[in-house]
Design a protein that fits this description.
The protein is about 30% helix and about 20% strand. The strands form two sheets. A two-stranded antiparallel ribbon has the order 1-2. A two-stranded antiparallel sheet has the order 3-4. It starts with 6 loop residues before the first helix and ends with a helix. Bound molecules: zinc ion (2 copies). The site of one zinc ion has 6 residues, from strand 2.
């Protein structure tokens, strides 16, 4: 059986709709837009952010600096001014006035990084030096026993 011609259109024009009730809903529907995946944030941006944070003193040279902002915890330690936490370089063995590299670390970050690297249990040298390896460039040097203990205490 063929559908009755014209029935549908007659029904549509006959319907009395209150003004503004959206009788043109079909026409008003927005055209489907093609969904384009936004480009993922590259490591470059992340690196730029971390570099900036280092310049501000929010983060030390440690790649996993626990004191700077992280994705999980963008504003850690609100009661602590991270920029005021001292950072130390890794000293030349036997000469604490010179550093073996330009990297500087929060003591807690350094102790933490040394532990991860398997340098955790330290023998204190005769001069009160604790041998460490730079977590960034692997240069071997030392920190003073006092600095090491400060880092250990800060982690506790
Ligand atoms: Zn740090
Ligand atoms: Zn270094």
């Amino acid at each position: 059986m063929a559908p009755l011609p014209g029935h549908g259109s007659r029904a549509r024009t006959r319907a009395a709709q209150p003004a503004g009730a959206g009788t043109d809903a079909e026409n008003a529907a927005p055209p489907k837009r093609e969904w384009v995946l936004p480009p993922p944030p590259g490591p470059t941006l992340q690196q730029r952010v971390e570099k900036r944070e280092r310049e501000l003193g929010l983060r030390c040279s440690d790649v996993s600096c626990g004191l700077g902002p992280t994705d999980d915890d963008p504003e850690p330690a609100l009661d602590v001014d991270v920029t005021k936490i001292p950072q130390v370089g890794i000293h030349r063995l036997g000469n604490n006035e010179q550093d073996v590299c330009d990297h500087r670390f929060h003591l807690a970050c350094l102790v933490s990084a040394e532990r991860v690297a398997g340098w955790g249990d330290k023998d204190v040298g005769e001069n009160g030096e604790v041998e460490v390896s730079c977590p960034v460039c692997r240069a071997v040097g030392c920190v003073t026993k006092q600095e090491w203990d400060e880092g250990v205490a800060a982690l506790a």
